[in-house]
Design a protein that fits this description.
This protein is mainly α and 123 residues long. The chain has five helices and two strands.
């Protein structure tokens, strides 16, 4: 996993977002084990406590769950995965609409979101 860190946002949240995107892309399947705290910390070159904080956030949100003694796993709830994808889509659309409005364009967020949902349902 490669993450370009941005100084304007806490690193643990950036890690959590990167894992959410990986799940949404299908890099991790439902019920699949994610890298251990130490493995991911070494891979992305951050303190293990930072990765642990990201995992705790994802567990709190229901995106990951822990099997005692085995590690952390992606939720097995398909609705949670769909909700996660829509959360990410909404965030991207909101940023896009904001940027376009700054350029003088008027775009309805709901229209874009609905188009993306329809396209996703087809594919």
């Amino acid at each position: 996993m490669k993450i370009e860190f941005d100084e304007s946002k806490p690193i643990y949240l950036q890690i959590a977002d990167a894992i959410k995107k990986a799940i949404a892309r299908g890099d991790f399947s439902m019920g699949e084990k994610v890298p251990s705290v130490r493995e991911l910390a070494l891979e992305i070159k951050v303190n293990p406590n930072t990765v642990q904080h990201a995992y705790q956030e994802l567990i709190r949100e229901g995106v990951l769950f822990t099997k005692r003694g085995q590690g952390n796993f992606v939720t097995e709830d398909p609705k949670k995965i769909r909700d996660l994808k829509m959360e990410l889509v909404n965030r991207i659309v909101e940023n896009f609409v904001k940027e376009m409005e700054e350029l003088g364009y008027r775009i309805k967020k709901d229209t874009l979101t609905n188009l993306l949902e329809e396209e996703n349902d087809r594919g």
